[in-house]
């Protein structure tokens, strides 16, 4: 029957009694499955864990620079791992690093939440912050802001 129509006979469930077969265009079916898989891959979001390293004896300006980098990563929808490195005698005062990590978490609390609380492992203490907005929302927001900026630039050039 399949040959008469010019289609393929595809075995669907070989374990069934009797086996189940379907008459279809197998090439077209494979193409449609590949299209669905490609579409699903395009809609996936890849969450990246960015890392920021600092020491307990960080100066205010350097701290602000690191904080702004953390904010940029979080606004982009990525997770951020903050690593506090202890060198020499700094290891005897881990509470200084803990306070600094808590301060950073407090500074970015409107755009992030603490996913993993500060935890000391040997000579370093780590904390992971997650964004409050999903990556897809953040990317859409960035595209909208970029489009508005381009539109404003075009209007300014037209005048």
From TrEMBL:
GO cellular component terms, semicolon-separated: cytosol; membrane
GO biological process: ribosome disassembly
Name assigned to this protein: Translation initiation factor IF-3
Species: Candidatus Planktophila sulfonica
Stretch list, region Disordered: 125-159
Molecular-function annotations in GO: ribosome binding; translation initiation factor activity
Locations listed in the record: Cytoplasm
Translation initiation factor 3 N-terminal domain ranges (all copies): 1-40
Biased composition annotated in UniProt, kind: Basic and acidic residues: 134-159
Main localization of the protein described in the UniProt heading: cytoplasm
The protein's assembly and partners: Monomer.
Keywords from the named record: Initiation factor, Protein biosynthesis
Family to which this protein belongs: Belongs to the IF-3 family.
Translation initiation factor 3 C-terminal domain residues: 47-131
